[in-house]
């Protein structure tokens, strides 16, 4: 190798290292900026709403000097910039204060209820992906046909129908009338005091412990709210799958594959869908994040003891520490999933690595 070739290789290596360093720096700046923005929004929401945290703790009939002493203990008498500094410091250490409703540290409550929300959102996302992707492929392949119109109408209903109305209707039909599913909640009361969860995911915990009766009971409780959330996930995933597949089916490599005599099934499922699957990862990840933050009404309707129901009960009792703490956790998870999907997209699609 000549000196010129060695110099050129060294420059290329430095250029790649510099590009990687800049990409990592941009990623870190994005994470920090987004998280600080989330903290700023929740902080100012907590200061703008007409609820006094001190009164929520001591009650409306407490003497003025007691209220003032509690305000000093909470730091509410400090300037806003100092309050924000302590708010960010505590949030970074996972200290969201004490819940007025449960008298427990908010982070302990979140650790207890968040697995239920994640399990429900996971079931909904699996349901949405299993049915949404094939329906989207079918709609794209049969573009303009009756099948395409039916899939689009199903998706439109998923976007349009209020989830609380559909949840109540499904309870009346599948629980009250047909008795196909269990009553609202997460487990029958007979298992609540005999079953010891490990991870907080009841389906998984009951399986690894070999408690099949608990597994089927947990399944009968989660299937209806999970399918309900999955239907809304299905509407989004099927629409995006159809759009991605229509774009892929118009590409030149599809024409070349047909010219080579490949079967239509192989072309659709092994070529077009594989390429469309790269952006679909982002779609499914965002759908999962959306179910995590959008399951408040579903958990309320089905008495599901997750983070959504916890935030709702806390808001009704003016427990702002719990409300803001839960909001920060949901927002942080949404940011993390969004960034993770972006990293996966860049990893799986080489065309995006140089951007």
Instruction: Give the biggest beta sheet.
Output: none
Helix content: over 70%
Distance between the termini: 31 Å
Return the CATH topology of the largest domain: MetI-like fold
Count of distinct strands: 0
Shape: globular
Going by helix content, strand content and strand pairing, the class is mainly alpha
Q: From the alpha carbons, calculate the radius of gyration and give it in angstroms.
A: 25 Å
- The fraction of residues in strands falls at under 5%
Order of helices and strands: HHHHHHHHHHHHHHH
> Mean of the pLDDT scores?
83
As residue ranges, the low-confidence spans are none
CATH top level class name of the largest domain: Mainly Alpha
Q: What's the number of domains?
A: 2
Subcellular location: Cell membrane
InterPro entries: BPD_transp_1_N, MetI-like, MetI-like_sf
Protein name: ABC transporter permease subunit
Keywords: Cell membrane, Membrane, Transmembrane, Transmembrane helix, Transport
Task: Describe what you observe in this structure.
Residues 114-345 form the ABC transmembrane type-1 domain. This protein is an all-alpha fold and 355 residues long. It folds into two domains: 15-92, no CATH class; 113-352, MetI-like (MetI-like fold). Helix content is 77%, strand content 0%. It contains 15 helices and no strands. The chain has helices spanning 3-48, 53-58, 64-74, 80-92, 106-141, 146-160, 163-177, 189-192, 202-208, 212-249, 252-259, 264-293, 296-301, 307-316, 320-348. The protein is globular, with a radius of gyration of 25 Å. The model has no long low-confidence stretch (mean pLDDT 83).
């Amino acid at each position: 190798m000549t000196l010129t070739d060695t110099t050129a290789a060294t420059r290329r290596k430095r250029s790649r290292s510099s590009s990687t360093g800049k990409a990592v720096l941009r990623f870190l700046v994005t994470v920090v900026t987004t998280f600080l923005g989330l903290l700023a929004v929740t902080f100012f929401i907590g200061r703008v709403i007409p609820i006094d945290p001190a009164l929520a703790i001591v009650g409306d009939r407490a003497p003025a000097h007691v209220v003032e002493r509690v305000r000093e203990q909470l730091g509410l008498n400090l300037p806003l910039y100092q309050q924000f500094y302590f708010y960010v410091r505590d949030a970074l250490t996972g200290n969201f204060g004490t819940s007025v409703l449960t008298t427990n540290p908010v982070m302990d409550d979140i650790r207890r209820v968040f697995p239920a929300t994640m399990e429900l959102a996971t079931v909904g996302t699996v349901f949405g992906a299993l049915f949404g992707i094939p329906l989207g492929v079918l709609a794209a392949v049969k573009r303009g046909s009756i099948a395409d119109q039916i899939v689009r109408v199903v998706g439109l209903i998923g976007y349009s129908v209020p989830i609380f109305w559909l949840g109540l209707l499904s309870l009346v039909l599948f629980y009250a009338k047909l008795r196909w599913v269990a009553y609202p909640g997460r487990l029958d009361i007979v298992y609540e005091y005999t079953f010891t969860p490990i991870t907080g995911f009841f389906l998984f915990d009951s399986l690894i412990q070999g408690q099949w009766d608990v597994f089927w009971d947990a399944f009968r409780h989660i299937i209806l709210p999970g399918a309900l959330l999955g239907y809304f996930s299905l509407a989004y995933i099927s629409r995006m799958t159809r759009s991605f597949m229509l774009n892929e089916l118009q590409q030149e490599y599809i024409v070349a594959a047909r010219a080579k005599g490949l079967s239509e099934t192989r072309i659709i499922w092994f070529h077009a869908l594989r390429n469309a699957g790269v952006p679909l990862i982002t779609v499914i990840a965002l759908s999962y994040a959306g179910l995590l933050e959008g399951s408040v009404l579903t958990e309320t309707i089905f008495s599901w003891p997750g983070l959504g129901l916890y935030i709702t009960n806390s808001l009704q009792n003016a427990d702002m520490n719990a409300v803001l703490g839960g909001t920060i956790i949901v927002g942080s998870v949404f940011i993390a999933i969004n960034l993770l999907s972006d990293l996966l997209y860049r990893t799986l699609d080489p065309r995006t690595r140089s951007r």
